[in-house]
Amino acid sequence: MRGRRFASNQDIERHIANGFGAGAGAEYVPWLRVQDVPSMGRSWKIQGVKIDRIHHLLSDLERAYFLLCEFSEDVVDIREQYPLLPVESTQAIARAIGVRYPKYKTTSVPMVMTTDFLLSVKQPNGDVKSVARTIKYAKDLQGKGCARTLEKLEVERRFWVSQGVDWSIVTEELFTPDLILNLVFLRKFAKLPRALMDVPLHLQFIEILESIKGCPWSTSESLRKIGHRLSIPYTDARDIFFNLIWRKTIRIELSGAPLQLKSPLPDFSVFYPTEISTLSEKSS
Fold first, then answer.
1. Taking the model in full, what pTM does it have?
2. Which superkingdom, per the lineage (predicted)?
3. Does residue 196 sit within a domain?
4. N or C, which terminus of the chain has less Cβ within 10 Å?
């Protein structure tokens, strides 16, 4: 699909009218899509498992942060490449602090600045608030050549302050490579066939898993034994195990080492969701 060009203010107005940068949940349309931005590195189009739409991520680092957001229980909506509109607001901020406002390449058209992620985040009291997050590699924020980047980030920061929205910069220091590898792996098991989403089956699975905790078996061998006792195929036992980890019913350390079926069963704890704990109480 061809990317969009921004050669005039009319182009911007047309894209706004067509819904780019608007909506929420599955209806949100990113202001920028992968095909709209010449990439110096890898970019990603990923079907969401939390939000049912294609997400447009412009770097490996954005992808890594996106995986964290999908894994988080507190993040309820993810809007990437979110526009800072109206343009007059960011232009006014730039003028006030003496920053040259960015323009589209080879034009005199003021650019629609964007924030990498606008998230809806559930608070401990049940409220949902918006937070804005900009994703940058640490090296791009220090040393020679970063002055222009920092100028534009200050415009972005002040825009969100004016909106009463919490804003901060996220770098690769937030997570380990192993954590991202594990989330990529676990994400494959985020959704199970309906036949495997049976709460009594999960309860039995967890009971057997806890009973073999500490046994000198590999993860795959442990799952084969669980599958045998439940009279289900090994692949079903594997899928349930990793789905329960993704859903945080089974909690393990994900940052320190990659998950491998040939490795020993990892140390784990169990957090029973309401539907499982209620059934457990009835059966005891």
1. 0.92
2. Bacteria
3. yes
4. C
